[in-house]
Specification:
Length: 409
């Protein structure tokens, strides 16, 4: 079986002039045997987990930095499941590590004894603020991050019934109704001693996180309804964006590739994912720069960026975590490149796959990607990148999402 679906080789991906209403590349449902290069990539990705593992089963969010969020906890479970499924982690070792991780998540000291804090010290489990791993501080909770974790807890429960009781123990102590209001996903942060409620997420991230919370039986109908979705012109392609002007309405690959890999596009639509991919190919056609944009870590200040197809009224902008413009640090992402190819397998995604599949150190893990200024490697290694690489390899290997696979078992 050819690695590229010929049905995907449609003229829409030649990016004609004028607005593209609906790119036509179809999601791949073809399982393939992983190549030696892909297996080497997977081994490097899993090496990150081994290098950064603590005795309690948790893994550092970035290399050598003992912090973790609930998004990272979801990435940990994702990486373990994917590594087991593609043959990189033996069943007995998987069961031991998964049992340990779930036990640790059950023991987390909760924010106000209600829900997981936004961040923890990965070794001591001390509740902390971002970037300050040595000082105990309860700072609130994130609905988006908890939503990612729940998606993976529920997948573990479905795929590995021997861990179902441990999954229920993790969730059982949470005050779940604090995560939603008026059908929307919410989070909380502390301002001094006062709680401030936040409606969390903009189009993409909001739906991705909300699907996880729906699995807890919570009402997130408004978050899932796409009420605020609009379309904007990005490099001649109609790209979905959020019409709310408060907060940053980041449009990146991340929620689309994750929803595709994990659920087969249950929170977001395949058609919208096609548009996100088509805009990036259009930029490549116009500028001759391979483009696979999403959020990424950096190994220098400001340490984290959102590479946005669209944000706050502008196309192709890169923002720091606090919203500052850091266009000079724009770049493409290994995890996005590999995930787009796993999902759609077009000639363009094959270019991405070939360029980015060698960006790793066998001793450290998979690198974040390539910065455009100077065409230099972004050699930071993180849990999220390495987990998503393993998720992409699972999709190649199985030819379907984790949820589709779990429902067939």
């Amino acid at each position: 079986m050819k690695r590229i679906l010929l049905s995907a080789l449609l003229v829409s991906f030649l990016i004609p002039s004028g607005l593209i209403a609906k790119p036509a590349a179809a999601r791949s449902r073809v399982a393939v045997k992983l190549t030696q290069a892909e297996l080497n990539l997977g081994r490097a990705a899993f090496q990150y987990f081994l290098n950064n593992r603590h005795p309690n089963g948790m893994v550092n969010a970035t290399e050598g930095f003992p912090m973790m969020t609930m998004w990272d906890a979801g990435s940990l479970l994702a990486g373990l499941v994917a590594a087991n499924q593609v043959g990189l982690l033996a069943k007995a070792d998987f069961d031991t590590w998964m049992s340990q991780a779930l036990s640790t998540l059950h023991q987390l000291p909760l924010y106000k004894k209600e829900l997981p804090n936004k961040a923890y010290h990965a070794a001591s489990l001390l509740p902390i603020d971002y970037g300050m791993p040595e000082t105990r501080k309860e700072v609130g909770f994130s609905g988006i991050d908890i939503g990612r974790l729940v998606r993976w807890l529920k997948l573990v429960e479905k795929m590995y019934p021997q861990h179902a009781a441990a999954v229920q123990a993790v969730i059982g102590g949470w005050k779940k109704d604090r995560l939603t209001k008026y059908g929307q996903m919410h989070g909380v942060h502390l301002k001094g001693r006062k709680e401030k409620w936040d409606q969390e997420g903009r189009f993409g991230y909001e739906q991705y996180g909300a699907l996880g919370l729906e699995k807890l039986g919570l009402n997130v109908a408004d978050s899932l309804a796409n009420t605020h979705r609009t379309y904007v012109d990005v490099s001649g392609v109609e790209v979905p964006a959020d019409n709310r002007t408060t907060y940053h309405n980041y449009v990146t690959s991340e929620p689309f590739i994750l929803d595709g890999l994990e659920s087969g596009f249950r929170a977001l639509t395949e058609a919208d994912a096609q548009r996100i991919l088509a805009a990036q190919e259009a930029r490549y056609r116009q500028m001759k720069i391979l483009t696979a944009w999403t959020e990424d870590n950096l190994n220098k200040h400001p340490w984290f960026t959102y590479n946005c197809l669209y944000v706050n009224g502008y196309s192709w902008r890169t923002l720091a975590f606090g919203g500052e413009d850091v266009t000079g640090l724009r770049g493409s992402s290994t995890k996005a490149a590999l995930a787009w190819h796993a999902l759609f397998r077009t000639p363009y995604t094959l270019l991405l796959h070939k360029r980015f599949q060698s960006l790793f150190s066998p001793q450290r893990g998979v690198f974040a990607g390539i910065l455009e200024v100077g065409n230099v490697k972004n050699e930071v290694v993180s849990l999220n990148t390495n987990a998503i690489v393993l998720e992409a390899l699972f999709y190649l290997f199985r030819g379907e999402s984790f949820e589709e696979y779990a429902n067939r078992k």
